[in-house]
Model the fold of this input.
Amino acid sequence: MPRVLIVAEHDGGRLNVSTARCVSCARALNEAELTIAVCAADPGAVAAQAAQLAGVTRVLAVANPANTHALAAVLAPQIVALAGPYTHVLGPSTTFGKDLMARVAGLLGAPQVSDIMGIESPSRFRRPIYAGNAILTVEAEAGVKVVGTVRMASFEAAGGGGSAPIEKVALSVELPAHTRFISVSAAKTDRPDLLTAARVVSGGRALGSAEGFKILYSLADKLGAAVGASRAAVDAGYAPNEMQVGQTGKIIAPELYVAVGISGAIQHLTGIKDARTIVAINKDGEAPIFEVADFGLVGDLFQIIPELEKLV
Amino acid sequence: MKRILVGIKRVVDFNVRIRVRPDGSGVVTDGVKMSVNPFDEIALEEALRIKERGGAAEVIVATVGPADTQQQLRSALAMGADRALHVQADGVIEPLVAARALLKLVEREQPFLVILGKQAIDDDNGQTGQVLAALWNRPQATYASRLEILGDTTARVTREVDAGLETLEVDLPAVITTDLRLNEPRYVKLPDIMKAKKKPLETLTLAALGVEQRQQLKLARFEPPPQRQKGIRVKDAAELVAQLKKKGIL
Done:
């Protein structure tokens, strides 16, 4: 019977919703046991949140000042020390999880299934390859411990209402000092998180400038939406990197995705193909984005977006 | 000698439209254009720039793959790498096997920096750099968008993470994986292609390195992704809003 260990993603005080999505993935394994590991400087608050997720058997709280910032090289040996009894070790397919879990897999000598999008059995998993242009089913050897990263757009967040016991764990593993956190810079925003927002308005190079993006922010605020961007727009400096949607940016699955001035390169479409409804607004009626759009509107975005903002 | 080792992979060119074989045994690769994985080109470009600034004496490219992979090694030599190492292997090479082979090369060449792409655009695994760093017991800085070498002992790396930009300091030697905005790789000129033919390319095998080609994940089935149904065109913003309201989205 599968025994699953999930590595919690958090910012020191709040559990990231990515962990609740990993819980849903773990439950699709028909697990016999589901443990969440919280490694932090002071894991109390995050562990309490993790304990409330429905279906969790227990939470392991590992306190260590070295865990103040999430560094893969520091976290990996701690996860390995906890991983012994588990058949599956899962983390989110976010930059946090992708960075960390492969290091864990390396230390364990275990295979990693990246971007798990579906579970056929405890040893058979579905995952996208070639920027989502093919779906691959992989099968692990029987009895092999599997490390996995969970594709966020494929699993709903698990609900709350649980009350799993929290165990404090003291680990005696040597942690490296060769990697040091210096800083993180992120634009402060009151808008919803791009990865989990129900509505996303996204802009491409056709916006023309960072200034041009302002009409999108304005529409997004009216809709209660997050704002995303194509790679071309980020490369051009119109939007910061954390807004990039696509194969190498964020993979998202909002209820509504509005692509504005985005032509729709396959690398971008990979990031949005699980959106419930896609709207494309573009002056080029031949743009590939219209192939995947539920509603397409050909025209001048600088005229259409302000109109749209008045109507919603 | 101060060396940088760059890992590259031969992949289906990013412009090729991927088709799954009807029998589900793989994707069509016969007669398809193959290239150096774009993220690995960025890795090589970064290594070359460090060398050109005087920060390294030699740039070595290495790959694990079938005989044909030598084409991509020659491309890398034409870009400016000094020599190439080809660990010849057929069939599926999992990240753990690739990383074990690279570790053997690292032990032999003693680079102060190993740079790889953050993922290959074929299998999208995104593991090899981190696995190598784990096996080597050295720092990793993934998704780099800026890399500064500070003297002989440390590097400062800016990483593209979900929250924004994170800066780490790592002791050398270290493993770096590249993101798109680290640099823009140079174009190769014809004389460089000619010169590359004379540069050293050494062929090795996994067996000679003492690495077992183990496959822990069987590739059971390939399928095309589900297609989205083609939608409708609307004439203006008002009709768009009406349609979205009708569907219960607004």
In short: Chain B touches chain A through 80 residues (CB under 8 Å). The mean pLDDT of chain B is 96.
